[in-house]
Design a protein that fits this description.
about 550 residues; alpha/beta; about 45% helix; binds pyridoxal-5'-phosphate
């Protein structure tokens, strides 16, 4: 046998077999099992896999592709090593960000396409997996109040991708033909709140508008857009002849779970467009990548409260639903299943109330002569990407099938209950102030103050009174030190893994106000882990105080 042929024999064993071979399947599964075993042996009581160690990125630049062939086992062992020091998002003492632990069906939804590699560019390359996308889109559209027969949507590469789709569509509405001819003259603008995700700026930059074309509207203390300022700014821009590429309502802000008043935003948009005789209707997008999942409570009777959530939780859910029920009023909606849908990255989709909007992005058949030769489902005609994995839709669909509406209500209701409990405890702490007390989601932002500070007065004062700028800065620094101690403890696998935001909002005089952040995403969270947050803060504060 020639040399390459003998290598080929070895390599063929490293692929799933094209024709049924149960012995090989068993070995394949065993390889997965062994990797899982190795990962399992890295687990302890701590919210971290293995031992945390300094990460040497300089050494990474010295790595080269090996000359020889390795075995599947060797590669698997090496892969597992990369997970050493990784936080376990599903651990109840891990409360870092809006990163969920994926459920097992969601994992299978990612694994199976990894084996058979469908490309949902069209049904030609994915057959019935394309159906999974169509089904997941219909289910979610219906959940959010769109008519699933009229609406359309596609999976894309993250929440940022959903915004890119929405803004590009809005651009085509306000500057028809610009997909082909590009933009000329004064550039259109995007309006969003000052708490909107920076992905709005990313999309503006990458679409050639430039981040300077994003007009940010101030938010109220409850982190929702001030509609009076939105209205005056929209009127000013329209009067000045500026075209509006997109209005983005954030339905679940990243740090605080603020929810913009979508219904009012739409009413203002309609009124201004009508009065000004615009020849297009500015596109209204709901960035609901976090908040979409609360749609499961749209048809939940909170007064009979079948799932028996506590009174506080019911109130918190009612607070969110009053805004989330309006999602269907947006022209498009961004959804991240990989945030509040409990599936692995990447699983995001953008929805249009009217599927015809997607046609604004379509290429001509002449541009894709080698594709779309058979079948009827060809999202690749208008998607930004050409190749798209089937894992996003399959994972989303798998999670929907697992949870149903009841399961998702249970998950979200529990996370909100735990966050409410945490808020109670934090608010009763003399040195702590919860800074998003009017947002009732799974995220809690808080500031820790030195014991000598009056926490009934200071949190408000330092934000509104420019004369307190020095104190604001000193307290920002104090919170950073508390965070660092908590983080060091967390890296040792002790305490709780929290995060910090440098600027959860700006003070009235334009200074960043930082905060510590607990984002409860684990179904395993429970009362004792809520107390663990308080214990961690108390330990950290003692250390910081002793070093002052
Ligand atoms: C409100 C909001 N929009 C957009 C994004 C961007 O989403 P992705 O990270 O999936 O690109 C995020 C990310 O956290 C977000 O919180």
């Amino acid at each position: 046998m020639s040399s390459y042929r003998s290598h080929l024999e070895v390599l063929r064993r490293a692929f799933p077999q094209p024709v049924s071979n149960q012995e090989h399947d068993a070995w394949f599964v065993f390889s997965v099992l062994r990797a899982l075993d190795q990962l399992d042996s890295m687990k302890s009581e701590r919210p971290i896999l293995g031992e945390p160690a300094e990460i040497d990125f300089r050494a990474a630049s010295e790595e080269r592709i090996p000359e020889g062939i390795s075995s599947v086992e060797e590669v698997a062992r090496k892969l597992v090593e990369y997970f050493s020091g990784m936080f376990i998002w599903g651990h109840p003492r891990s409360q870092i960000n809006v990163i969920p632990p994926p459920c097992i069906p969601g994992i299978l939804g990612t694994l199976l396409p990894a084996i058979y590699n469908p490309n949902i560019c069209s049904e030609e390359g994915s057959r019935r997996v394309a159906l999974a996308e169509a089904e997941a889109i219909a289910m979610t559209a219906d959940l959010m109040g769109y008519c699933p027969r009229k609406a359309g949507g596609v999976f894309t590469f993250g929440g940022t991708g959903t915004l890119l789709y929405a803004i590009r569509t809005g651009l085509e509405k306000c500057c028809p033909g610009s997909m082909r001819s590009g933009l000329s003259g004064e550039l259109p603008v995007i309006l969003c709140s000052d708490e909107a995700h920076y992905a709005c700026y990313t999309a503006a930059s990458w679409l050639g508008l430039g981040a300077e074309q994003v007009v940010s509207i101030p938010t109220a203390p409850d982190n929702e857009m001030r509609t009076c300022l939105f209205e005056s700014e929209l009127r000013r821009l329209v009067r000045a002849g500026r075209r509006i590429a997109c209005i983005v309502a954030t339905m679940g802000t990243t740090d605080a779970f603020g929810l913009d008043p979508l219904r009012q935003i739409r009413e203002i948009r309609d009124e201004v467009a009508g009065e000004s005789g615009l020849d297009y209707l500015p596109h209204l997008h709901a960035d609901a990548v976090i908040g979409w999942a609360w749609s499961v409570f749209r048809d939940y009777d909170l007064s009979s409260n079948e799932l028996q959530f506590s009174d506080r939780t019911t109130r918190a859910l009612a607070w969110a639903v009053r805004r989330i029920k309006d999602l269907h009023l947006a022209d498009s909606i961004g959804v991240d299943y990989h945030k509040t849908g409990f599936v692995p990255y990447i699983s995001s989709a953008v929805f249009f109330r009217d599927a015809a909007d997607l046609q604004l992005l379509a290429r001509t058949p002449a541009e894709t002569p080698y594709l779309f030769q058979s079948g009827e489902y060809h999202p690749g005609r208008f998607t930004l990407e050409t190749s798209r994995s089937g894992s996003g839709p399959l994972a989303a669909l798998a999670a929907f099938r697992l949870f149903g509406r009841t399961g998702l209500r249970t998950m979200l209701g529990h996370l909100v209950s735990m966050a409410e409990l945490l808020r109670d405890r934090l608010q009763s702490h003399p040195c702590i102030s919860v800074v998003n007390p009017d947002n009732f989601g799974p995220v809690t932002l808080f500031r820790v103050y030195p014991p000598s500070v009056d926490t009934f007065e200071m949190p408000q004062r330092e934000i509104t009174d420019a004369g307190r700028a020095g104190q604001l800065q000193a307290h920002n620094e104090y919170n950073r030190r508390v965070f660092e101690v908590i983080h060091e403890e967390a890296l040792r696998g002790e305490g709780v893994v929290l995060s910090m935001t440098e600027c959860w909002r700006e003070s009235d005089y334009g200074q960043p106000v930082s905060a510590l952040k607990s984002y409860i995403m684990s179904p395993f969270s429970d009362e004792q882990y809520v107390q663990a947050v308080l214990d961690s803060i108390n330990r950290a504060q003692k250390i910081v105080e002793s070093s002052c």
